[in-house]
Amino acid sequence: MSINRKVQTLDEFTIQQLRNFPHATGELSNLLRNIGLAAKRVNVEVNKAGLVDILGDHGTINVQGEEVKKLDVYANDQFTGVLRHGISCAGIASEELDDFVAFDDEISVKSKYVCLYDPLDGSSNIDVNVSIGTIFSVYKRVTPIGTVVKKEDFLQPGNKQVAAGYIVYGSSTMLVYATRRGVQGFTLDPSIGEWALSHPNIQCPVSGKIYSVNHGNYFKYNKGVQQYITACQQKDKSNGGPYTQRYIGSMVSDVHRNLIKGGIFMYPGTTDKPEGKLRLMYECNPFAFIIAVAGGKATNGEIRILDIDPTKLHQRTPMFIGSTDMMDELAACLA
Ligand code: P6P
Fold first, then answer.
1. Separation CA 114–CA 139 (nearest Å)
2. Does the structure show a pLDDT above 70 at 52?
């Protein structure tokens, strides 16, 4: 009987990477597998979200006698749990938690990585069955191994990331992660409950025809952003268009689509919220790392997202990310 070796699972792929880089300790591969496990558990609950009336809304006790948690809280507990009980993470920071969490047991303090994540971004879309996602970022700690992690282990610029990725719980569930060696996309195969390598070495097209922005804020954007949006609307066959506007209000889905097809996603600052809405450390930095490895660009309108020196765990930043040609045209408008 021939074994189906065509499909490589996440475990097989990360172990293959270890064979290719024998000096690696395997800690990062193990951390990525931990994330893959938590994501599978979250995926089960997200797929049931529509049944909340039957399963009970959060804060209630369901028919199994279990407390029903908000999906954000449930997702946060899953990612935090697998990393705390693993051997590859010394601490985490989460959109759901005010401060970072140090794993101060004798095994975890010996780990060399910390992880930051938004466990369930766009969760307000669950009620209307729009895709949502998890976004994560991995750094090497800067404090001595064997000690309890500190805030400086988390407040590092995005250019220090060693890995970053996201899960999109959509029509199919995908796990995409980047290391400096490339961007790999895995699709969950429910028949075997494994992440199957479906999109090896993802590259962002150098240009595209999709622009993603919330037009509802148009008159709150600065003149440069307004000028670029108008330029997108005026594209036709003679100058690389026509463009189409796609925006579903779920960053993971919007950026994932543009990464694969080419395009630009913008969440600019506005007159009332100059820093915009998106969080630097666990939304913008991870995607900026992924797009850089995939050949695209990400800025705050002035400098690379990856070069922003963070001062607070939950600080926000304006975000522009996508295909290089489109990002360069935007930069010309912003200048
Ligand atoms: P707006 C979801 O709430 C989110 O954080 C991102 O996933 C998404 O891109 C953005 O907010 C949408 O925000 O203001 O356009 O509804």
1. 5
2. no
pTM for the complete prediction? 0.94
Closest-CA residue, ligand 1 atom 9, reads 251
pLDDT, tens only, 61-78: 655 556 666 888 899 999
List the residue whose alpha carbon is closest to atom 4 of ligand 1: 122
Residue 192 has what DSSP assignment?
T
Q: Residue 216 Cα, ligand 1 centroid: separation in angstroms?
A: 12
Q: Which CATH number fits domain 210-334: 3.40.190.80, 3.40.50.1820, 3.40.1360.10, 3.40.50.960?
A: 3.40.190.80
pLDDT tens column, 2-39: 555 578 999 999 988 888 887 888 899 999 999 999 99
Q: What DSSP line would sit under 49-91, residue for residue?
A: GGGHHHH--TTSB-TTSPBPPPHHHHHHHHHHHHHHTSSS-SE
Candidate CATH numbers 3.40.605.10, 3.90.550.10, 3.90.180.10, 3.30.540.10; the one for domain 10-199: 3.30.540.10
Query: Mind listing the pLDDT tens digit for each residue in 180-224?
Result: 999 999 999 999 999 999 999 999 999 999 999 999 999 999 999
Q: How far, in Å, CA of 62 to CA of 205, rounded?
A: 46
Substitution site in 72, 124, 166, 251 for ligand 1 pocket (most atoms within 8 Å of beta carbon)? 251
